[in-house]
Amino acid sequence: MRTLLKMLLATGLLGSAMLTTALAEGGWYPPVKDKVVKEECGACHMPFSPAFLPTRSWEKIMSTLPDHFGEDASLDADTARHIRDYLVQNAADTRRYNRMLRGVKKTDVPLRITELPRWKRAHAYEVSARAWKRAGSKANCQACHRGAEKGYYGDD
Questions:
Q1: Residue 43, Cα to own-chain centre: how many angstroms?
Q2: Residue 78: helix, strand or coil by DSSP?
Q3: Four-residue CA torsion sign, 60, 120, 72, 31
Q4: Residue 71: strand, helix, or coil
Q5: Which of 97, 113, 121, 138 is 20 to 30 A off residue 127, Cα-Cα?
Q6: Prediction pTM value
Q7: What does pLDDT average to over the chain?
Q8: DSSP E strand stretches across the chain
Q9: What are the angstrom distances between the C-alpha of 12 and each of 46, 58, 153?
Q10: Residue 92 DSSP class
Q11: Tens digit of pLDDT for each residue in 115-134?
């Protein structure tokens, strides 16, 4: 990772201080690029990077849209299949290395990013009760991570 970071810096392909910090801390995850996923998922919440959860989690989430965390997020079959395919193709376990899956057993099917051991460790002592209240929800990544929609989750 450090070699890649140095190469990107040396070639000028990496100019953003935010990206430099995020990469160095392992805090960059590919943002959602698909227009349909952005539109449909983004209608209710920030479209989360598929790289946060393993394939089995995205499959479960997409198979239970009528009860999507207490809401009916049903979609027509073609749209649901399109979104599912995008999430599965870009899931955490399709990447060579993904820190978010540390501590997640192969049999676990986490349905919330906030259930992941790495997320819990990263937020347990760093976020005050006041900050949580201001954010309104643990799913409101942008409240603390200004670059979240672009994939930057390093400390801001």
A1: 16
A2: helix
A3: negative
A4: strand
A5: 97
A6: 0.80
A7: 85
A8: none
A9: 30, 35, 22
A10: G
A11: 999 999 988 888 888 998 99
Q: Which two tokens stand for residue 119?
A: 């997320």
Q: Which residue has the tokens 């990013």?
A: 113
| Long-range contacts formed by 25-32: CB under 8 A, 24+ apart | 25/154, 25/155, 26/1, 26/99, 27/152, 27/153, 27/154, 27/155, 28/151, 28/152, 28/153, 28/154, 29/100, 29/151, 29/153, 30/90, 30/151, 31/149, 31/150, 31/151, 32/86
**3 state DSSP class of 101:** helix
Per-domain boundaries in the chain: 1-30+125-156, 31-112
Long-range pairs for 137-142: beta carbons < 8 A, 24 or more residues apart: 138/114, 139/45, 139/46, 139/112, 139/113, 139/114, 140/46, 141/46, 141/48, 142/46
Burial zone of 71 (CB within 10 Å; 0-12 exposed, 13-18 middle, 19+ buried): exposed
Residues 6+ apart with CB under 8 A from 133: none
Enumerate the β-bridge partners of residue 68: 71
